Amino acid sequence: MPLLDRKILATLMMALVAGALCQAASSTNSLPKPIQDSLLPAIKNGGFAMDGYILWCSSVLKVGDTYQMFASRWPLEFGLNGWASHSECVRATSSNLFGPYQFQEVVLEKRPGHWDKSRVHNVKIVKAGNKFVLFYINTANETGYAVADSVTGPWTRSEKPVIRASNPAPLVRADGSLYVFCRLRDSESVNRGVAFTAPAFEGPYSVMENGGNLLPNGGELEDPTIWWANNQYNIVLNDWKGHATGISKAGAQYFSKDGVHYTLVSREPVFTKTVQYNDGSSETFSRRERPFVYVNDKGEALALFTACMPADQHARVVVQPIQQYYPDNQ
Q: Per-residue pLDDT tens for 195-207?
């Protein structure tokens, strides 16, 4: 081969290698920094606790100068399994995002003779236009809602479930339409990540991708929480069987630009069962579930709420501050 041809070939090979390296770097840089890098120690005396009750499923909305928490609760005497027959929705308030929150009222109870006759659970509060919309489940794959003009009610409930899935994580988009990421356990007991869309909170809700699992590499989930930032859907969830993190039910973070194709941010867990507190102490719980990420109007995540159950099952909501996290991928 003539010398000139060898130089041209070498130049082309170098260009191809450089292009591949750039593409790899671009792919790496497209991942946001993990949210756990911005987590601060939990507030030891913050959050929400009630003597004699198990607290679960919290979500928070700021109305005026007050933080409004909606959560599930049931009497401690029934133990963890009491959620199936005694769970109800309560409201608590605080002037501080991190709490402590004070109980205000029972918002919703189960209704004999209606679709929500067994329980009110998995509560998630959102603002849709001028309406407050509270999503919740009865049994698995029965998600409905209650709506009110005021955060204090009165509440009008849907007359039937609107989504055939559980663990709703609703997101009201800028045009008023809704995107809801959920868990759907299929016939093979796989907890798929599925999404539904609707033109408004009343519905109708349409499942995306024929109900296929939107989590990559066979990922499974419980308890997603969702927010919109950097023109993408951002989700933190319980890693059901450790597909993402290697730790069953640890926290895992995903994002998607189109609401269909999700990418795992990091194999390092967002949270585990051990909580570090701001006084230097720590606590390892028997269960830590139901993550909720509170986000401000700028899309900055400011707090992580989780339901934490010690050995005596007297579960409470623990709040971990986040140092103004914003997903920075391009």
A: 999 999 999 999 9
- Output the DSSP codes for 164-215: SSEEEEEEE-TTS-EEEEEEEE-TT--EEEEEEEESSTT---EEGGGG---S
Quote the percentage of the chain above a pLDDT of 70.
91
pLDDT at 17: 36
> Residue 147: which residues within 8 A CB-CB, separation 6 or more?
131, 132, 133, 134, 155, 156, 201
Q: From CA 183, how far away is CA 149, in angstroms rounded?
A: 29
pLDDT over 60 (residue 173): yes
Distances (CA, A) of 316 to 122, 141, 170, 270, 307: 15, 26, 23, 19, 6
Q: Give dist(CA 281, CA 30) in Å, integer.
A: 36
Q: Using 50, 70 and 90 to split pLDDT, how confident is the model at 140?
A: confident
Give the pLDDT confidence score for residue 16 in this predicted structure.
41
- The sign of the CA dihedral 304, 309, 310, 316 is positive
- Residue 35's SS3 state is helix
Which two tokens mark 253?
């973070």
Q: Is 38-324 in CATH node 2.115.10.20? A: yes
Alpha carbons 70 and 93: distance in angstroms, whole number: 9
Q: What would the DSSP string read from start to end of 249-293?
A: TEEEEEEESSSSS-EE--SS-S--SEEEBTTS-EEE-SEEEEEEE
